[in-house]
Amino acid sequence: MIVRNTGMDLIDFLGYSFIQRGLIAGSFIALLCASLGVLLVLRRLSLIGDGLAHVTFGSVALGLFLRVSPLYVSIPVVMASALGILKLTEKARVYGDAAIGMVSAIGIAAGILIANLAGGFNIDLFSYLFGNILAISTADVFVSIALALVVLGVIILFYHELFSVSFDEEFAETTGIDTEKINVMLVLLTAVTVVLAMKVVGIMLTSALLIIPAITAFQIARGFKNSMIVASIVAMLSVVAGISLSFFLNLPTGSTIVVMNFAFFLITLIWNKLVSRLFKKVT
Amino acid sequence: MPLDILSVEGLRFRYNSIEVLSDLSFRIGSGDYVGLVGPNGSGKTTLIRVILGLAYPAGGRVSLFGKDLAEFREWHRVGYLPQRIASFNPFFPATVREIVGHGLLSKKRFVKRKSWADREAIRKALGFLDICDIEESLIGELSGGQQQRVFLARAIVHEPELLILDEPTAALDPETREKFFTMLAELNEKKNVTIILVTHDIGSIGKYASKLLYLDKKIIFFGSFADFCLSDEMMGYFGAYSQHMICHRHDSEKHRYGSD
């Protein structure tokens, strides 16, 4: 392992434009993943992120094949797949996990077939598997921020509806909430988020950005709103710590971000256990 | 004559070509307390789901507050306590305040935001059910009885005129069950809330309800508990011994049948 000059000034580190781009885009995407992840985990839809990430593999291959930016091809394709999963579970009596598994496998299979038919872009395609936020272009930073703001805006606007449907869908319906529309909205937001997360940690690790901050927050936060806030803070800290560590220790950025997320989870888990043990002793 | 809160005419419901509800017609007026009883699979929950717009009937007409169900939008006038609250996710990180606040959503239009008045309404509902001290507790930390009160607070926080409860006491011990029934009777008597309560326990509900609707895919009986106990038709349906057991289970206590 090559360790860079750790005595390097923080100002120098932050002075690199690729670091700035990575920190800004990564933080926005992490914030987005965390708040949406809380909803997905609580609705036991954690693996939809994983399934849609696999579809992203196919859509990236399609983008490379058509010589169009994979981001622009991926968003509509992954959104359509997300709706497909939802409709399969609602209308075709297919269990949710089975529908996710099927769509996920088709995504990978399509990606491999397109790559095989086209030939020549395997290296590009496989670089998307593990992502690299430090290689993000300025244009992609702006697109990521814009999309992240749109998705966050929708989450804030429909916060009460999303909470209500996640906690008790039947009751939510009796308060006049159109639960079908909220479910469609949730999977479409997830689709956009998964495509954006691919830039940060790559296709293989996208689900980690959705799941780990949420389950970390559940260890220590009290209340739904607090869980979203804690998950967002943990996710953004993980991105900042992950990018910094990966730079100084010369490690792959995406994996380091995921490991940092896991480290926060372990810390909160241990803290939670210690506090509950102490509380038991006191009482 | 009291205003019709709920009117059901010729209601039919089919599930996979099996008739679950057959030609139901009845009316519930303001301030009524109706015990909806019947054996397993008699269509009690299905009827409730149709009334709440959660299931669509094969035929007939349902009106709430004088409006056809298809056009009814004033869901803030209705409170609902579902049957399966025991199956909610106990690890859901929601506080009692957040859950009770849920009940206020039906009063709000887009964009739904909470105000100070909402906070007061939540405190009032918690105070009525004597659970102010658990406002900041997580739902998973509470006992079954406390959780049931929280869900009842959610159903009444927006001060509905009609309260529908689907087997709310199934998971409660006898003492908590009696307290729960007393709270409902208070809501009915002091706040004139119309109540429809689904239960298997015909004897217990007879003690509190002003009317009894006995359902077994069709209406077997609809009237007061006193009429039920004096009905020869019901004696023929249940048998004299069962009718006697249902009606005289609470003879030692003061109840509507005895006091009427």
Question: Outline of this structure?
Answer:
The complex is a heterodimer of chains A (283) and B (260). With 283 residues, chain A is an all-alpha fold.
Structural class of chain B: alpha/beta
For the record, the CATH class of chain B is Alpha Beta
Strand content of chain A: under 5%
Number of helices of chain B: 10
Intertermini distance of chain A: 49 Å
String of helices and strands of chain A: HHHHHHHHHHHHH
- Report the sheet with the most strands of chain B, covering strand number, pairing sense and barrel closure: 6 strands, mixed
User: What share of residues are in beta strands of chain B?
Assistant: 15-25%
The overall pLDDT average of chain A reads: 88
- Number of distinct beta strands of chain B: 10
Low-pLDDT segments of chain B: 252-260
CATH topology of chain A: ABC transporter involved in vitamin B12 uptake, BtuC
The major beta sheet of chain A can be summarized as: none
Which architecture of chain B does the CATH hierarchy give at level 2? Answer: 3-Layer(aba) Sandwich
What is the oligomeric state here? heterodimer
The CATH class of chain A is identified as Mainly Alpha
Kindly report the name of the CATH homologous superfamily of chain B. P-loop containing nucleotide triphosphate hydrolases
Q: CATH H-level name of chain A... which superfamily?
A: ABC transporter involved in vitamin B12 uptake, BtuC
CA distance, first residue to last residue of chain B: 21 Å
